[in-house]
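Troubleshooting log. The previous structure file for this entry was overwritten by mistake, so regenerating from the original sequence record. Sequence copied from the archived sheet and checked twice against the printout by T.R.
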Amino acid sequence: MIKKIFQIKALSVIFPALLVFISIFICYKNYTPGIYLTGWDTLHPEFNYGVYLKRIVFGAWQSHQGLGSPASQAHASEIPRIMFIGLLDIFFAKSFIRYLFAFLMLILGPLGVYFFLKKIIFKDSDSFSTQIGSFLGGFFYLLNLGTLQHFNVPLEMFLVQYAFLGWVFLFLTSFYQEGRRKDLIWFSVITFFGASQAHTPTLFYVYLMFLFLYLILMMVLDLFSKGKDILGNKSVSLKRGALIFLLTLLINSFWLLPNIYYG
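Regenerated output below.
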């Protein structure tokens, strides 16, 4: 019995560790020391945090664009990312900051998908088939053409969405099903740091649409799976679904409201 428990625990560590190892190996093979990683829009706030912070904190009006203009992009959504890379800047060379951020996003993405599949799809089973199925899902998320497209010429908003998508739906679903405050807190934290996906807001609006459809789908499935008990659970499902959706809007309101004003 004890031996079986240790085998299960070992599997629970081995497969996510393997995903991390493969991701780090890919990062290693794609790193060139001493040069700056530049991407789509060549965003390099690490060159001058003061200027960039001014532009994003007061992002509703972009004074450096011509004679000044209302911002069509959600510059303020970059605030969580700048907080993070500013911390990295204390410990690493400037030429490595953008590399490191991209590498961390590449590592986080498959792990989020792995844990989402393991807990939500496979119901947190510790069987070998569950572990291998979750691993293969994370592995496919890591090694597909969409990932290559995102990271070959990186733009931070796509990297951030790639990294946090699995984690968002993991804690969203966990809270919806179980109602635990811990899951809601984690969902809120990840939603805040994932706000940088909205640098071009249309990406966030598509994400929000799918989040809404996902919530509706779960509520519809509840409706047909609980039979006679639906009246007792329907209000709980609606409250949790509404809370998740409204909390997403509230957390993103620091950039969303100025963008709505521009529209």
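The radius of gyration is 20 Å. Archived copy saved in two places this time.
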